[in-house]
Amino acid sequence: MILDTNALSAFADGDSAVVERIGSAAVVALPVVVLGEFRYGIAHSRNRRRYESWLDQLVRVCAILDITSSTAARYAEIRLSLRRAGTPIPVNDAWIAALCRQHGHPVLSRDRHFDFVDGIRRVTW
After folding, report:
1. Which of 15, 87, 99, 104 fits as disulfide partner to 10, beta carbons 3.0 to 4.6 Å?
2. 121: number of Cβ within 10 Å
3. Which of 18, 12, 9 is nearest to 1 (CA)?
C-alpha cells in the first residue's frame, strides 16, 4: 500500500483506522513526493521534533519509492488522460498515482480524485 500525505498525517496522529489499515498491509511504501510534503508540513509544526523523529523511524521500515524515468512516463500518461477527460488532479498526486501504477499497489488516501485515474485503486479509512 502506498501512503498519500493525508494518510501519513493521520498515521502520525495515531488515527486507529489508519493504523489498522497500515498494520494489515503486506507492503507499506512512501513516495518521495509524500515525504517532501510531510516534511514541509512538519517544518511549521510546534511538534516538529516529535514528528521528525517519528518519520525517521518510519522511513527505516518502509519502502521508499523514488521517481524514475519509468515513473515519469506513467506520470505523463496520467496527466494527459485526466486532462482530456476534464478531471485533472494536483500535480503531486499525479506523481503518486504514477508510482501506484508503476508498482501495482493501491493508494491509501481520502482524496477521491485518485478514483479518476485508470489502473490504480484507492483505499480509505
Report:
1. 15
2. 13
3. 18
| pTM (two decimals) | 0.94
Domain with residues 2-123, CATH architecture: 3-Layer(aba) Sandwich (3.40)
Give 109: exposed, middle or buried? Use CB within 10 Å, 0-12, 13-18, 19+. Answer: buried
32: alpha, beta or left, given left = phi > 0 and alpha = psi -120 to 50? alpha
Pull the grid cell for residue 23.
Answer: 498494520
pLDDT digits (tens, 9 = 90+) for 1-30: 999 999 999 999 999 999 999 999 999 999
Q: What is the pLDDT of residue 47?
A: 94
Q: In the chain, what are the domain boundaries?
A: 2-123
